[in-house]
Write the structure tokens for this entry.
Amino acid sequence: MSEMKLRHLLQFQAIALLAVILSMLLLALGPRFFGFSSFVIYSGSMEPKLHKGSIAIGKPVSANALKVGDIVAFKARGGFAPTIHRIAAIEEEAGQLLVTTKGDANEQPDPERIVVRNGGSRIVYSIPYVGYWIEFPRTVFGGRIAFMLPPMVLGVMLLWSIWSPVVLKKHETAHEAG
């Protein structure tokens, strides 16, 4: 394979990888611009419907629109991230809407019921594995990689442009062609 074909193949692969990554991020984070929410799935409590490492997209809904069977995101007391579970029961007590939730993979419902005041976030779809990509820069190793990778790529590109073999083409003149 000639060097020119190899270079074109590598450029095509880099562009394809970048397009896939940008498409995944657009699907995952784009809805936020339209009032939707995105949540990284940290546990396997909703397997097999929602996989660990996926990103879930939630649509804001009113409290009256919530129904048993909906998958919702809520902030559990003392939790660092929203919990995403299915509504198992809805009750009204003393004028308050109380929701019991349960993870699909869990045996028992969640111990605390959630008081729903204004509404919630119903999960409408999820994208597998994108949560890992989004969370990776937040890790110690990922933060270092995210900080060091762009200068390293630019350095490699600069060195490639300096040291790559130059292919000279013979230019035909009018005298040689005729």
